[in-house]
Amino acid sequence: MMNIFDELLHRLGSKTRIRSLFKDIGMDEMERIINRLSEVLEEKNQEKEAEDLKRKEKLQSVEEIKKVMEAKGLSMSDLNLFQEMGKEGKRKRNVSKHNFEYQTASGDTVRWYGSTTGRLPKDFQDYLDRTNKKRIDCIVDDE
């Protein structure tokens, strides 16, 4: 089953089918339809020209950048090298991890290894809420 756009393209794809489609339409109405189609075509042409102009400007910018890089003795691999160096230079967060000990609601003692920030196991969070303790109060010495 064809959708309406496929059907329209099929009908407008042949002069014979166009004649059949417009056999009961007056000339004035046909001229209005043709004018609308011409306006749509003109809009599409303008959009294409604008895209072509943008593409040409980008290409020109790329060529200018290549010339500057060549004059400075740089290559794309040099740029990639600097990007990689930048990644290494980023400061990493200092997250301290500890052994925590807490009791579940059923009275079991549990040891959990984790950090002083971030999400907690549900039982641990429940324990902190019940006892009004802070995480740091539950740190046990590493054995």
Concise description?
The chain is mostly helical and 143 residues long. The chain is 59% helix and 11% strand.
Task: Offer a few descriptive terms.
three-stranded antiparallel β-sheet; 59% helix; 143 residues; mainly alpha; Histone_HNS_N; single chain; coiled coil; elongated; 2 domains
Give an account of the 3D structure:
The protein has two domains: 4-69, no CATH class; 97-140, no CATH class. The protein is elongated, with a radius of gyration of 36 Å. The protein has a three-stranded antiparallel sheet with strand order 2-1-3, covered by helices on one side. It contains five helices and three strands. Strand 1 and strand 2 (109-115) form a beta hairpin. The chain has helices at 4-12, 15-21, 27-72, 76-88, 122-131, and strands at 97-103, 109-115, 139-140. By secondary structure, the chain is mainly alpha-helical.
Strands, count: 3
Q: What is the number of helical segments per DSSP (H or I, 4+ residues)? A: 5
Overall morphology: elongated
The mean pLDDT is 87
State the helical fraction: 55-70%
Beta-strand share of residues = 5-15%
Low-pLDDT parts are: none
Distance between the termini: 74 Å
Structural class: mainly alpha
Secondary-structure element sequence? HHHHEEHE
Largest sheet: 3 strands, antiparallel
Number of domains: 2
Strand sequence of the main sheet, in spatial order?
2-1-3
Radius of gyration: 36 Å
Describe the SSE topology.
Elements: H1 4-12, H2 15-21, H3 27-72, H4 76-88, E1 97-103, E2 109-115, H5 122-131, E3 139-140
Antiparallel strand pairs: 1-2, 1-3
